[in-house]
Write a structure and sequence with these properties.
InterPro entries: YjbR, YjbR-like_sf, YjbR/MT2646/Rv2570-like. This is DNA-binding protein. By secondary structure, the protein is an alpha+beta fold. 32% of the residues lie in helices and 21% in strands. The protein has four helices and six strands; from the N terminus they run αββββαββαα. The longest helix has 16 residues, at 89-104. The chain starts with a helix and ends in a 13-residue tail after the last helix.
């Protein structure tokens, strides 16, 4: 996965935006004002930090040496993924979507509906 592909994948998600709160070199991808991905897109090697279910985070770290505890993040909830081909692209795509979903799931229902998030299908509550 290239930096352009990573950026495009993150921005393809409904309501996603790219911000630069730390410095011009670090892309912070957010939805609803909350972070779901962080990457220095010009970094060598290319890496991305993604939110993850804690139990899954541990399993992924065990299965893939290119997945490590989130760098400068809560290591229980964040993984940093090395994008050098050692982690399959399809898994990286799934991890990006899972990170996004973990964030959107915590947003108010009306914001979830505005994002047309699949997690709201079948639920008519608008709290």
């Amino acid at each position: 996965m290239t930096a352009d592909q990573l950026r495009a994948r993150c921005l393809d998600l409904n309501g996603a935006e790219e911000t630069f709160p730390f410095n011009p070199e670090t892309s912070v991808f957010k939805v609803g004002g909350k972070v779901f991905a962080i990457s220095a897109l010009d970094g060598e090697p290319l890496k991305v930090s993604l939110k993850c279910d804690p139990d899954l985070a541990v399993r992924l770290r065990t299965d893939y040496p290119g997945i490590t505890p989130g760098w400068h993040l809560n290591k229980r909830h964040w993984n940093t993924v090395l994008l050098d081909g050692s982690v399959p692209d399809h898994l990286v795509h799934e991890m990006i979507e899972d990170s996004y979903d973990l964030i959107v799931a915590k947003l108010p229902r009306r914001r979830q509906l505005a994002l047309d998030w699949p997690g709201t299908q079948g639920n008519t509550s608008t709290d």
